[in-house]
Amino acid sequence: MTSGEAKDVTDRMSIESWLSALSDTVNAGDQTKLSALFASDADWRDVLALTGRMITVSGATRIAETLLGQTGAERYLQDLHIDGTRQAPTRVTRADVDVLEAILSFETARGRGSALVRFRVADLSAPIPVAWTLLTALEDLREHEEWRYREAKDAAETERGFHDPNWLDERRESLAYEGRDPAVLIIGGGHAGLTAAARLVHLGVDTLVIDREQRIGDNWRLRYHGLKLHNQIHSNHLPYMPFPPGWPKYIPKDRVANWLEAYVDAMEINFWTETSFLGAEWDTERACWTAHLKSADGRTRTMRPRHIIMATSVSGRPKTPHIPLLETFGGTVTHSSGFRGGSDWSGKPVIVFGTGTSAHDIAQDLQGHGARVTMVQRSPSMVVNIEPSAQLYDGVYLGPGPSMEDRDLINLSVPLPLLKKAHKLVTEQVKKIDAPLLDGLERAGFELEFGEDGTGWPLKYRQRGGGYYFNVGCSELIASGAIKLVQFRDVAGFEKSGMKMADGSLLPADLVVLATGYEGLADMVRRHFGDAVADRVGPIWGFDETSSELRNMWMVTGQPGLWFTGGAFSQCRIYSKYLALQIKAAEIGQPFPA
Asked: In 246-291, which ranges are continuous DSSP H helix?
């Protein structure tokens, strides 16, 4: 036996000794002994498996209290063992700490679960090591697993009825919704809505997606000309249908749009285009929504789904900040959501408000078409080179390694406290790598910041949905002066021909682009469901201080039957699974707790 093989055997023995002790103490209800199995600074993240919620619990004592505080058979980790079908126990480095990481499998009364436990390597010498982090996540609902649903469908298709409706006939009938309502109505047909729909379809839940655009994928297709995804392909796959080999590292918007269109067909997702959501009221007596839809030809339809998923991204309607006297400006004003390209503005003066990703991309597009561009910075922003710096935060998906399923579980298993530590270390590394660029920006007057406590762009995104830029060339244009920069505090207001500065000078302009972000989901809820529903739901997105989870995302909310999804491709791929499991559980009369 080699030294490496001997170490693997020893590591496995350490894990199994901990698993045995955990099962014994949980079954015995011994809180003191259970607490001793976790490090004092340990974190346990549960995703529906044991608490029925998404929650992160920190500290050995609280973990033991919470785990043993669950009632019923679900709290018991039955048949807890190292999962031989997943990545083998591995020593890796997380947040600059050497750890042993193992993927586990277990059963509860509700269904099958997966777990991931981490031990500090420094703690492995003890007869029973203490766990540093633990994830428990529900994988399937008992008797309602995805494979059972697909198997049932396949069995029904063995006969050949040559005069019966064929697949296309059945798809058309399903899509028409004549004489029936969907169980789930999804508002928004981008990647967030489609990943949720695909998961629900695979669980046999009747689901309809609606979107205002004319064609599936238009929410990407109609955006500005040069848009590409800003993180690499490996983290952006959709459930069940990964991108083909040979696709570009950064996928262009039109290719994303076309892929979404193909995905709808391949996943048999019911999708109505050119359909607007006018609003809905909750019928308490019937436990369903009365939802009002309007098609492009003006026809309206009322549907009564039991669930509505808002999948309009983490942003809502365009946000227009107060800019003094902008209404007196005689040129064109557009929000970034309506900007289509810079070719019409060659040689003309343009002012772009904002310093996030859209603002930078639009300014670069305009400058490349010969426009004279000035950016207005309203608040400090984070700037990070797209390579390698921005990608370092996606480390679990980089390079060769485990399957996408295992990588997603590893991603899911990182509790917020550990994520903050890891991202703070990455951000310090990024600042060193990008120092020449950042120094040049500061000399040009650009104001920088690096997220809460220096944790970088991913947590900025989870807190506010933006406030950063992945540099693909615009920063060099700002640093060199090819794109001018002014601070908003130096702006006095507008007049007909341009922007008046506090020093009395005038910046002429023919076009003003407001790359100033979007209102949040809470605003959309209030407009479409009313104040009472909005108040019951409360804030959406951003971290909840008690649970350390994103507020009201992918989970039961204060309003029965109302759900939310959104975020990056990887977030939607991972969390759509748990959103769908909760809806399926409600449909079979086994709802998760509110």
From this structure: 253-266
Of 155, 497, 213, 512, nearest to 333 (Cα)? Answer: 512
Q: What is the CA radius of gyration of the chain?
A: 26
308 pLDDT more than 80: yes
Q: What is the pLDDT at residue 594?
A: 77
Q: How far is CA 137 from CA 64, 251, 410, 480, in A?
A: 17, 31, 11, 50
Q: Specify which residues 333 forms β-bridges with.
A: 512
Q: What percent of the chain has pLDDT over 90?
A: 79
Residue 443 near residue 479, CB atoms below 8 Å: yes
* 68, 75 Cβ separation under 8 angstroms: yes
Checking if the pLDDT of 522 tops 90, the result is no
pTM value is: 0.92
Find the mean pLDDT for residues 183-204.
97
- 517's tokens: 């972000």
CA distances from 565 to 354, 526, 590 (A): 26, 17, 21
Q: How far apart are the first and last CA of the chain?
A: 52
Q: Phi and psi for 397 in degrees, rounded to 5?
A: -100, 0
What angle do helix axes 191-202 and 253-266 make, rounded to 10 degrees?
A: 20
In this prediction, residue 162 carries a pLDDT of: 73
Amino acid in the structure at residue 134 = L
The gap from C-alpha 14 to its chain's centroid, in whole angstroms, comes to: 35
Judge whether residue 463 has pLDDT over 90: no
Token output for 249: 């590292």
CA distances from 163 to 93, 155, 171, 175, 310 (A): 61, 19, 16, 21, 40
Using alpha carbons, list the distances in angstroms from residue 574 to 199, 409, 554. 10, 8, 10
State both tokens at 203: 């669980």
C-alpha 411/C-alpha 101 separation (Å) is: 13
Record the tokens describing residue 372, joined without a space.
């004279």
3-state class of 535 per DSSP? helix
* The token pair that represents 94 in the structure block: 């997380």
* Burial per residue of 428-462, b for 16 or more beta-carbon CB atoms within 10 angstroms, e otherwise: eebbeebeebbeebeebebeeebbeebbbbbbbbb
The token pair at 407 is 């990588």
What single letter denotes the amino acid at residue 558? G
Please provide the size of the chain in residues.
594
Residue that is written with structure tokens 């309607």 in the block? 317
Read off the pLDDT band of 577 (50, 70, 90): very high
301 pLDDT above the threshold of 80: yes
The DSSP 8-state label assigned to residue 518 in this structure reads E
What percentage of the chain has pLDDT greater than the value 70?
A: 96
Q: Does 48 have pLDDT greater than 70?
A: yes
Question: Collapsing DSSP states into helix, strand and coil, what is residue 278?
Answer: strand
**pLDDT tops 60 at residue 252:** yes
* One-letter amino acid for residue 95 of the chain: A
